[in-house]
């Protein structure tokens, strides 16, 4: 017991000597430290802070990405990807045309409409005419006449002519969201050329590949 008391006394005495020595040797250092603290306090008091942005939103817990995660589980890279896949996709919409969402139709119908659009864009009349069943080919004749007349009336130019079998009538097109029925698919298409664009509707067969019942011109738009 005496030895323990002697050890504690010696330890405390040593600390007191070190403390006194440190205070004498470090007087200048303490003074410098006090000067730095005063300078920092002055800068903080004189600083003009900006208004905090979105304070209310930033103080809320972000829960949207973790809504599907069961309680007690944590958000990981893997289930974050799953969360993104569960969110509904966003598709562009042209208010004067249609939505560009093609997710409601099987790809084979999209592929068929692309082939028919290529025939129309190239103005391959023989193949385009052959895409109509024999009892609907009068619809192609009406469409071709309306297109050639409307070209002059709406674009102010003569309908393109060529000695070749085909010519490039339109340089690109976009497909809109189709309407699917039991015996009919209606595909809105916007065809672009240097003079403007033409909106049409393709009336297609859901059973026979590359088969058209009708092509209806919906709208002309001329570039200024």
Q: Could you describe the 3D structure shown?
A:
The chain is α+β, with helices and mostly antiparallel strands and 224 residues long. The chain has seven helices and five strands. Strand 4 (196-204) and strand 5 form a beta hairpin. Helix 1 crosses helix 2. The protein is elongated, with a radius of gyration of 39 Å.
Major pleated sheet: 5 strands, antiparallel
Strand content: 15-25%
Helix-strand sequence: HHHHHHHEEEEE
- Which parts are unreliable, with pLDDT below 50 for 5 consecutive residues or more? 1-13, 15-19
Summarize the structure.
The protein is an alpha+beta fold and 224 residues long. Helix content is 44%, strand content 15%.
Question: What attributes characterize this protein structure?
Answer:
224 residues; alpha+beta; five-stranded antiparallel β-sheet; 44% helix
Walk me through the topology.
Elements: H1 2-25, H2 27-46, H3 55-58, H4 77-86, H5 107-121, H6 125-130, H7 137-155, E1 172-175, E2 179-180, E3 185-192, E4 196-204, E5 212-222
Antiparallel strand pairs: 1-3, 2-3, 3-4, 4-5
